[in-house]
Amino acid sequence: MLGVFSSSIVSPPDELVAAGCRTPSPKTTSTALLNRFLETKASSVSVQIGDDAHLAFTHHSESPLRPRSFAVKDEIFCLFEGALDNLGSLKQQYGLAKSANEVILVIEAYKALRDRAPYPPSHVVGHLEGNFAFIVYDKATSTLFVASDQYGKVPFSWGITADGYVAFADDAELLKGACGKSLASFPQGCFFSTAVGELRSFENPKNKITAVPASEEEIWGATFKVEVPAALAATK
Questions:
Q1: Counting CB atoms within 10 angstroms of each CB, which of 73, 111, 161, 226 has the fewest?
Q2: What is the 3-state secondary structure (H, E, C) of 56-117?
């Protein structure tokens, strides 16, 4: 799956900008990235949302344990990859039909977060159990909400293209060609929300997240890590 968003929706993270500056490497534009996805991924589908957002996905070669799904409801677009272990109980919690799947559940969870502000975003994502990564884009508010499970079982990366778009994908090699070293694995157990304005851990929302420069041999330009409080680290 692939999501590409202009700087009018999300400002390129400073850590990824810095990573690209430390080790300059070839990049391509967001349009070239999207075209490469459509050309190399069989049976792929793309959705353009206004002038500043694109989503694309395919069911081809997906893992049976990590299926991809797409849905849109009330101008909320969502790409989801993975499976939730507690989907049944969450459907009851949100009053959803028995036929509702993970992508519909995430849209409803996001709507609850948006409409019940200041409901903590970490609570919404923290209730999800299983292996997952998802991209939610709320066209009505131009809000982007992205998250990955606490175990990082679904490969998920983000980077910055040559024309300053922020891209998210489950294929790191795809992003590498477009983002160069302005690229990182999306940290497990974390979410990024333009409403919050930063990357946060949903397991430890008060803990700071730092970007550690990667070596030149690595595909990444940086690695994001959730800092452990000194008192806790001393007990380990």
A1: 73
A2: EECCCCCECCECEEEEEECCEEEEEEEEECCHHHHHHHCCCCCCCCHHHHHHHHHHHHHHCC
Q: Is 29 exposed, middle or buried (0-12, 13-18, 19+ CB in 10 A)?
A: middle
Calculate helix-pair angle for 172-179, 30-40, nearest 10 degrees.
150
- The predicted model scores a pTM of 0.92
Classify residue 229 by burial, with Cβ atoms within 10 Å: 0-12, 13-18, 19+.
exposed
User: In 79-218, where does DSSP find H-type helix?
Assistant: 87-93, 102-115, 121-126, 172-179
Distance CA 31, CA 47 (A): 13
For the stretch 22-77, pLDDT in tens is 877 889 999 999 999 999 999 999 999 999 999 999 999 898 889 999 999 999 99
